[in-house]
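Why does residue order matter? Because the sequence determines the fold. Keep that principle in mind as you read this record.
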Amino acid sequence: MIKKNILRDNCIDVFNSFLVRFATYAGVFEFPRICPIDVIPNRLISFSKAISSKDYDQWVHFYEDDYLFERIWRKPKKYLSVLKRFNGVILPDFSLYRDMPFVMQLWNIYRSRSIGHWLQRNGIRVIPNIRYGDKRTYRICCDGIEKYSVIAVGSHGNVKNARDREIFFNGLDEVVKTLKPIVIVVYGPAPEKYFNEYREAGIRIVQFDSEISTSHKGVA
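Structure:
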């Protein structure tokens, strides 16, 4: 049965407004605020694999193709009980391609934050995933995230060539200046050349190999 938005009579809640019913907002684009956290993941598992996993002593991440986790937006309530079994969740990593219209980049940041707010309201530990696209999103993507907390970023696929590395680390520099995180959880490579600067500034870098990288190591 399709439930109607209880805040608007006779309206079907196609925008998942129930996710942010009790949210407070930050920034000109009003992204839902995410409460700070100081917990570090022990292990990670992708959302698509977590659905059928019985090993719950790990954190769920969304660093995979969007089509594999778009369903968390379409039917978030369906997966709440699954996510509650795990140690916590790194927020959805909806794509922010640089050639996307700006409004789509903003929409995908909003979707991740609204899910994050709702998960926290339901007692799930959440680490904000900071995803940015072009330089217009460098500072905007920090709106609603508290300073001096744990954040996560996905470097997998973003540091392969010089142009991508430049954009990724220019954005990360802005994020670090804005949020001053105590820990950065990195899914994918964390090259010493770039991350040493953050370590020297007192930021702990916790790196996890991507599943593709791990599978390649196993084959080797």
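The chain has seven helices and nine strands.
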